[in-house]
Each structure stands twice: as C-alpha cells, then as structure tokens.
Amino acid sequence: MHSKHCSQNFKLSSYQDLQATLAAYSRPILKTTSLLATLLTCALTWALQAQAPLTADDSQKAVADAVNPPTLVQTTKDTSLVSVLGYHEFTEDQEATEMRLPTDKFRKQMQALKDLKYTVISLEEFLAWKNGTLKLPERSVLITIDDGWKSVYTHAFPILKEFEYPFTLFLYKNYVDGGGKALSSDMIKEMMQHGASIGSHSVSHPYPSTVKKNIKLGTEAYSAFLNTEFGESKSFLEDKFDKSIETYAYPGGFHTPEMFDIAKQKGYACLFTVLPGKVSKTSENMTLPRYIILGTHDSIFENATRFPATANSTASLGAIVQSTPFPVTPTAGSTISNRMPTISVDFSSLDNIDPDSVVMRVSGFGKVPLSIQPNRKIFSWKVNRRLRKPTCDITVSWKLLDADTYEKPMRWTFIVDRNAAYIPTTAPSLPKAKTPDTEPTISSE
Ligand SMILES: [Zn+2]
C-alpha cells in the first residue's frame, strides 16, 4: 500500500518531467574514465601548513609562492559533481516494479559504482561539501533510500555493508516501527552502526492531494500542517536516534515555496526532490536533484552514472546494468570492439517456444532476418553493416506454442567501443594532451 502510495506521488509530480529529461539526454561517445581526486588530503595538508609557525624555509617558500602561487586550493571553481541515487524497496523473488528493485540488479549497480571508481560519500560528507568545509572528488555518489522498508535491512544492507558504502535512510515518522514490511528502530540503529545516516521524509508521507487540500484551508492551517510534517518528523528522529537531522526528502518530490521557509526555520540544510540531475556545489539546497532508480527503467542508473567532461577529466559513459532472462550475445552491458558482431539469443531453457514467432529488432536496422540453429532454439543475426552508434539496443519478441499473444519482450543493450576499432597508423595532431586515463598523483605524504 505504501509502495503504491509513493509510486503514485512520484508519477503525479515528476514522471513526465523525468521522461522528458531522459529523452533529452544524448549518449556521449567518450570512453569511460574516472578520477579519484586527492584534493581533500591536499586541502588538509595545505591548511595544516598554513597554521604551522613559519621557519626560514617556509618564508623562502612563501616568497616563491607569492611569485608562483599554488593553484590547487585557490582554484575558484568547485567542479565536483554528486549523483544522488534514490531507492525504495528491494526484492529477491517478486517481479520488479518502479519502486521495487531486484536485489541482484542492486548488487550489479553497486559493483558498477566500484568499477567506475566513483566515491560513495556519506550524508555528512555531502553536507560538509555543500557548506564549504570539505572538498570532494570530482565524481561522487550519494546513496539514499526512502520510506523505511524492511527489505532495506534484509536485502540491501548486506550488500551495502559488503561494499562498505555509506548510505542514507529518509524515514517518515508514521512508518518507523510500523510492523509488517516496515523497518524497526532496532534495524535502523544497527544500520546506523554500519554506515547509515538518516534524514526526514515527513510525518505522514502526504499525497500531493493532501498537501493541496491543506493549502485550500488557508495560510494558517497550511502553515500548521507543514510545521507538523517538517518539525515533528525532525524532532521524532532526533529524539529516537540521537542524531541531528538536517536533510529532508520531499515525499514524491512534491514541494511548494512555503515549504522552503518552514524548512529553513526548522534547521534543514538540504532538501531533495525526485528530478534527475547532478548536484554541484552551487545547486539550490531547497530543491536538490536526485535520480530515482526505478526497478523497471535501467536507463536511469545509466544516466545517473554518466558524468560530463570537466577541465580535469573526460566524460564518462554511464553504467548499463541489465539482466536478460535468457542467455544473449553480446551480453547486456558488455563492451565489444568488433563492429560487426553476431547477435544471438539462446532459448534452450524454454520448452514450448514457437520458433517461427521469434522477432529480433536491432537499433538502426529494425527487424532483422534470423538464422535458426538446428535445434531450433538459438536465434542469431550477424550485423551486416558496421555499427555506428556507441550503444546498440536489441529487442526480442516471441510466442509460446499454442499461445495467442506474445510474451513480454526481452530488451538489452551492449556498448560498442569505437575507439578500439579505429587505430590510426599516424597520430593526428592532437589538442594539448590531457592524459585522460591516468589519475593525478598528488602525494599526501
Ligand atoms: Zn516516499
């Protein structure tokens, strides 16, 4: 019931925006690289040096610095970006829904963050960065989980612990210790011992319709309503878990300007929406973007893990985390260098497939003619014209024998490494070298 509740809010407030934003994304062609910045250590080292009493060497250095000032800490622009991921419920055996993500996919996503060498930060680090007391690596990820479902403890927590990732729970008062599928205080406390931070997600998780009803009751009534949702949820969590609460996730992302004033009064520093986008140092704290990772739309995680190029690093392609119910080649999310691969699907585990019903569609080619292996279970097509896009999307549809309708189609994507296919014999004149594949080595010693 709560899941539906949340999902409906989400659709009402932002789903179309989200779709529009997704459609507007184009896939960058640059190869995935990453940067593990050591700016923090540097900033600390520099700050410590700045406080130490001056020696003769130091004053010589100071003169040298005045001539060639160190640029690292004095860089005016903070180019770090944080991708905030928003999860809800997890499942091992139920079908995926928008709000319910299969645990194996969650594990793959966590692995992808590791493979991409992104830094997973805690809520406290996020807040410190936002208020200017901490530098972050160029590309960080903040993992948040809304509502307080028990499956967070039973399914996601073991994986988060294994990867040693900090994470944030946005809890609403009425569901804490709600029994059934809700998290208990003890579970929350245990998770707080192992990387969990907490923020508020209101008292009652109101629908936008409930919020609007309160607006209609007049300024005073609306103000009292917001006071409870923002104030009581905060004091409840602070008393129960002995932690200061400075963040809020709008239920369903729904917010009005009146909420900003109340939030500031109550002492909230950062409030999160459900509109996708990266957070920068200067992003408006009252309406911070967040990628809600839907169990049914793999492209959102891909967008969430794609970062634009900066002065210090090249753009990174997002991680494609998919799973297919039958074996396929090239496998979902894999990177290939052969631009004319054979695409295949193996239906051997399916007893009653109608071999004549199988249809494969390949992006840029449409419906393609399939070859069928003698056992009539492996279907394939060899690409007959070099793939030109950085990714290739496949859809396969089929019917079971004696069935009138098609099964739910299977979709997957693989990545085409076009750079690997072009190996120029003579190097073209390159723009000023940027060594995109190496990390800056700034010693912390
Ligand atoms: Zn929620």
Automatic annotation (TrEMBL):
Pfam family, one: Polysacc_deac_1
Segments for region (Disordered): 426-445
Stored PANTHER family: POLY-BETA-1,6-N-ACETYL-D-GLUCOSAMINE N-DEACETYLASE, PTHR34216
Occurrences of domain NodB homology (ranges): 139-368
Listed name of the protein: Polysaccharide deacetylase family protein
SUPFAM superfamilies for the chain: Glycoside hydrolase/deacetylase
Enzyme type, top EC level: hydrolase
Localization annotation: Secreted
Keyword Signal: yes
Coiled-coil features, chain-numbered ranges: none
Keywords: Hydrolase, Signal
E.C. no: 3.-.-.-
A GO term for molecular function: hydrolase activity
Source organism: Rubritalea tangerina
Keyword Hydrolase recorded: yes
Phylogenetic classification of the source organism: Bacteria, Pseudomonadati, Verrucomicrobiota, Verrucomicrobiia, Verrucomicrobiales
